[in-house]
Amino acid sequence: MLFEAGATDMPELKLALVQPEFAKDYWRIVDSERDDLRQWLAWPDKAKDEQFFKDFVRRSLHDYADGKSLTCAMIYQGKVVGNVSLNTIDHQRGVAEVGYWLSREYRGKGIATHAVATLRDWAFNHYGLKKFQLSAAAENQASRAVAERLGMTLEGIITRAEALSEGRVVDHAVYGCFATEKA
């Protein structure tokens, strides 16, 4: 499955359903950018080798087949540069929550915003969901800016929401939008 980025101003961005061959690209990024990624993500310290990502892809494809999630590689100018996913798809409540990470080298180009917008549109138009959510560490201004650029509403702050590496615990800013509010 290959998605166009949804916005005509970024034709060089594609989203592809995760595939086993992406594991080496994910490993390459995380191995060289672990300290940067672990600032806001809990899992980078657990990624010890390429097998971690092979297992991740296998689980992600299984969950996709079961309708529980949708995990895609962000491919910019033909190169895997990160990951974006509907981490959870709750068909009963009509809600999906997005998550993503992007190589440091490709930040500030609008890639994450376009990728998240594409999955938001997919959640509403393909799955028929009613609500789209994004949770980010309250101090992670870059991720919060993605939600704000997409017109999402800050619904609140959840204190002590996630344990990261070295015992660090962060609060989460939770943003949401409804299918009828999509910008």
Descriptive notes:
The protein is an alpha+beta fold and 183 residues long. The protein has helices at residues 23-37, 50-65, 111-125, 141-149, and strands spanning 2-4, 13-17, 70-76, 79-90, 95-102, 131-137, 153-163, 169-178. The protein is built from four helices and eight strands. β7 (153-163) and β8 (169-178) form a beta hairpin. Helix content is 30%, strand content 34%.
Note the topology.
Layout: E1 2-4, E2 13-17, H1 23-37, H2 50-65, E3 70-76, E4 79-90, E5 95-102, H3 111-125, E6 131-137, H4 141-149, E7 153-163, E8 169-178
Parallel strand pairs: 5-6
Antiparallel strand pairs: 1-2, 2-3, 3-4, 4-5, 6-8, 7-8
Helix pairs in contact: 1-2
Q: Note the gap between the termini.
A: 25 Å
Binned strand content: 25-35%
Mean pLDDT: 92
Counting helices, strands and paired strands, the structural category is alpha+beta
- The sequence of SSEs as H and E is EEHHEEEHEHEE
If you compute it from the alpha carbons, what radius of gyration comes out, rounded to the nearest whole angstrom? 15 Å
Strand order of the largest sheet: 1-2-3-4-5-6-8-7
Outline? globular
The count of β-strands is: 8
Give the helix tally.
4
The percentage helix is 25-40%
Major sheet details: 8 strands, mixed
- Detail the poorly predicted runs: none
